[in-house]
Amino acid sequence: MFKFYLNKLKFYLEIIVSITLSVTCIYNFLNSPTYVCFLISCNGELSTSVKSAFPRLIAIACLVSKITDMFKNLTYYPKYNKKIEEYELYFPIIVSKKSSRNIFIIFIGFAYISIILPLNIIRLYLIYYNLQKINTLIFFTLMYLQNLSICLIEIYFIVRCFGLFQKFQTINEELALLKSKTITKNKYPAVLLNEVHSRIINNSQCHTLVNSIELLRMKHQFVRSALRDLNKLYGTQMGSSLVYLFIMVLFDIYGEVITKDSKTRSKIFIYGWLLQYAFRCLAIIITTHFTTKQAYSSKMLIADINNRYLDKTTKEELYLFFNQIYHHSVEFTSCDFFTLHPHLITTAFAIGTTYLVVLLQIH
Asked: Are 317 and 213 in contact (CB under 8 A)?
């Protein structure tokens, strides 16, 4: 009963926070030109539009991420969470995996906090100390809170993605163990296998091997399904975050070039902000890449086992396992627009350089 009321309270609290944050996003979007031009002088309509685009972009990204996250968390996440809990109930995580996951969570949380909060606090202090305007301070505080909200969604995704990575890793470790056992049993040349194996292979052992492969195939299928569910839960938010971070890099570099002698900016900010955006992009893309790579690594292990002498039933089970992985995608995408892959970084860098040159030429 207590858990029921706790979940209900969490449900209403999530709605209140989301609505409040959405209101602040609308407020910042509408008032961005006023406060940005008060902070940095704007000359003309084009200059105002470009300089006010920075907080407006954060407001839009936060609004899209929060509304999407609220909707999906209230509708899809309970089912996803229940599936993961049931899986871990039947296949408990070993102690070493739990410890590594806890270390990873602490590392990601500490990294986000250490590269975001200090710079934001220093910037707010400079704004208040040099301008003495409460309204301006509130505006930028809301902007940084919106950025923090996006960061929390990214952390949730990265942590859950790492959990799936560990599950694929466990399956591959069990496949590797089966592979080593199969190699041990296949000590004779291929030409002698048909004559020898009828005498040395025990039928009960073959039956056990088939059952083990079938169980691993079912586990892999379940984790693949969980990966697709996670992609549906966070695909929109992660796509929005990556696009937002990409554009923020452009505007920060552009702002650093065109802004001179600002009392509320320091050279350390540009390096800190670029470090923040780079780390967040890498954390999202690298985590998804290694999870996908771990899922596809099972194919190589299955092929290695299948190359050994095995009975017909075992080979059929391996063939079915291999085909399931081959014909079902296990990649993370953003609404099928682009795949979260390391090549995305080089593509974004090339496009970003081009647009940055265009912006500087317009200026």
From this structure: yes
Sign of CA dihedral 128, 130, 134, 137: negative
* DSSP structure class, residue 94: P
Q: Tell me the per-residue pLDDT of 198-223, one tens digit each, with 9 for 90 and over.
A: 444 445 555 677 888 889 889 999 99
Q: Kindly report the number of other CB atoms within 10 A of residue 322's CB atom.
A: 19
Instruction: Report the candidate in 273, 250, 268 with the shortest Cα–Cα distance to residue 126.
Output: 268
Looking at residue 113, its pLDDT comes to 92
Yes or no: say if 294 and 346 are a contact pair by the CB < 8 Å rule. Answer: no
Give DSSP secondary structure letters for 28-49.
HHHHHHHHHHHHS---SHHHHH
Please determine, for residue 320, whether its predicted confidence score (pLDDT) is greater than 70.
Answer: yes
- Give the ranges where the chain is alpha helix by DSSP (H): 2-39, 45-75, 77-90, 95-131, 134-185, 193-200, 203-258, 267-306, 312-327, 343-362
Given a cut of 90, is residue 107 above it in pLDDT?
yes
Q: What is the pLDDT of residues 18-47, one digit of tens each?
A: 888 888 889 888 888 877 777 766 665 555
Q: CA-to-CA distance for 168 and 221, rounded, in angstroms?
A: 10
pLDDT for 33 equals 80
Are 241 and 284 within 8 A, CB to CB? yes
Q: Where are the alpha helices (DSSP H) in 40-133?
A: 45-75, 77-90, 95-131
Question: Is residue 139 within 8 Å of residue 35, measured between CB atoms?
Answer: yes
Contacts of 311 (CB under 8 A, 6+ apart): 201, 206
Mean pLDDT of all residues in 316-341 = 82
Q: What is the pLDDT of residue 197?
A: 47
Tell me the three state secondary structure of residue 333. strand
- Whether 204 and 28 have beta carbons less than 8 Å apart is answered as no
By residue count, the chain amounts to: 363
Contacts 24+ apart (CB under 8 A), 354-362: 355/250, 356/250, 356/253, 356/254, 359/50, 359/250, 359/254, 360/254, 360/257, 362/46
Instruction: Quote the CA–CA distance of 186 and 188 in Å, as a whole number.
Output: 6
pTM to 2 decimal places: 0.85
Tokens of 127: 């704004």
Q: Which two tokens stand for residue 289?
A: 């890449």
